[in-house]
């Protein structure tokens, strides 16, 4: 199946992004809204933060919530961004050291942040750290793609995805990318 997809899709164009704080912050901003809305709100948030843009220190320095709320952030997303900024500033989320940790340790470091769950942490592993063997079993796009590519009757559950993804090891991130790409879209890292 992957051989066929690789021929159809072409070479992997997956790129990483070293702006780790920005990736996590934009992940929070974009939750449960369209890509277009996320880009618009993200742009307004960066503008509201002023010089330096989407950085932990700028979020912490923004004493007033109103400009960020007017940029389009919900109260929950603003709380999540502040939590991320505080945890990064305090070292509870050691952004510079995450690259040295194994995948589960990275996930464990990120999920205590409000608004970041396992799926967001797995996207971070793929798009920020360039980890090659991540299988995001909760990702709807992966589940729908596997349903189609393997001609299943129902969306695969975690166990089925894990079994079907086993032959992709140690490149399950790449296999996942090809599944996403077969639909013409890949989750964005920026």
What's the layout of helices and strands?
Blueprint: H1 2-9, H2 20-30, H3 35-49, H4 56-61, H5 66-70, H6 75-90, H7 103-110, H8 118-127, H9 140-149, H10 158-165, H11 172-182
Helix pairs in contact: 1-11, 2-6, 7-8, 9-11
Q: Can you walk me through this structure?
A:
By secondary structure, the chain is mostly helical. The protein has two domains: 2-13 and 135-182, Endonuclease Iii, domain 2, CATH 1.10.1670; 20-127, Hypothetical protein, domain 2 (Endonuclease III, domain 1). Helix content is 57%, strand content 0%. The chain has helices at residues 2-9, 20-30, 35-49, 56-61, 66-70, 75-90, 103-110, 118-127, 140-149, 158-165, 172-182. Helix 2 (20-30) packs antiparallel against helix 6 and helix 9 crosses helix 11. It starts with a helix and ends in an 8-residue tail after the last helix. The mean pLDDT is 92.
Summarize the structure.
The chain is mainly alpha-helical and 190 residues long. The protein contains eleven helices and no strands. The chain folds into two domains: 2-13 and 135-182, Orthogonal Bundle (Endonuclease Iii, domain 2), CATH 1.10.1670; 20-127, Hypothetical protein, domain 2 (Endonuclease III, domain 1), CATH 1.10.340.30.
């Amino acid at each position: 199946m992957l051989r066929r997809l690789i021929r159809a899709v072409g070479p992997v164009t997956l790129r990483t992004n070293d702006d780790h704080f920005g990736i996590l912050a934009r992940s929070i901003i974009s939750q449960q809204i369209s890509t277009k809305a996320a880009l618009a709100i993200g742009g307004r948030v960066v503008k509201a933060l002023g010089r330096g843009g989407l950085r932990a220190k700028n979020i912490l320095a923004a004493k007033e919530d109103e400009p960020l709320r007017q940029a389009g952030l919900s109260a929950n997303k603003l709380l999540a961004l502040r939590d991320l900024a505080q945890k990064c500033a305090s070292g509870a989320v050691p952004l510079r050291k995450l690259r040295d940790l194994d995948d589960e340790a990275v996930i464990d470091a990120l999920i205590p942040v409000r608004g970041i769950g396992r799926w967001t942490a797995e996207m971070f592993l793929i798009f920020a750290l360039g980890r090659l063997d991540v299988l995001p079993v909760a990702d709807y796009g992966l589940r729908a793609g596997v349903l189609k590519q393997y001609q299943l009757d129902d969306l695969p559950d975690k166990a089925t995805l894990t079994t079907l993804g086993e032959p992709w090891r140690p490149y399950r991130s790449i296999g996942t990318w090809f599944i996403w790409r077969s639909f013409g879209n890949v989750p964005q890292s920026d």
